[in-house]
Amino acid sequence: MQFLMTSAAWTLPYLLLATGGYAFTLGVWAWITGSKTVGGTRRELLEMVRGFRIAVIGLAVTGVGVWLLTDQTWVLVVSLAVGGEELLESSVIIAAIRADPRRAGEAT
Predict the structure, then answer these.
(1) Triad 59, 65, 68: Cα angle to 5°
(2) How far is it, in rounded angstroms, from Cα 102 to Cα 95?
(3) 99/105 Cα distance (integer angstroms)
(4) Which ranges constitute the DSSP H helices of the chain?
(5) The whole model's pTM is what?
(6) Rounded distance, CA 17 to CA 21, Å?
(7) Alpha-carbon distances, residue 80 vs 32, 33, 39, 50 (angstroms)
(8) Tens-digit pLDDT profile for residues 35-89
(9) Where does residue 56 rank: exposed (0-12), middle (13-18), buried (19+ CB within 10 A)?
(10) What gap in Å lies between CA 44 and CA 35, rounded to an integer?
(11) Cα separation of 24 and 54, whole Å?
């Protein structure tokens, strides 16, 4: 039983590193494909920001995996702080892109 607990403890960081790397790769790919043209449509801009958001989440997950391997608390703090801030910022940008411009002047 002790072996299973030890092997599971070492498996989680590598699983987080692999998952974070995969999410980062997908996010960068979506970011690049969304930013093919300058001044594209709202849909292309939304795709680009979503790709950025996925890439940031992937980097934050990778940072948590590095923290588990190195036991450096500052890595966890920086990963979660930067990841959380960029996630909030990209959520606001996505909400602004999705907003209907025809209703911008109406009182709510």
Answers:
(1) 145
(2) 15
(3) 12
(4) 2-34, 42-70, 73-98
(5) 0.79
(6) 6
(7) 24, 27, 32, 19
(8) 776 666 788 888 888 999 999 999 999 999 999 888 899 999 999 999 999 999 9
(9) buried
(10) 7
(11) 6
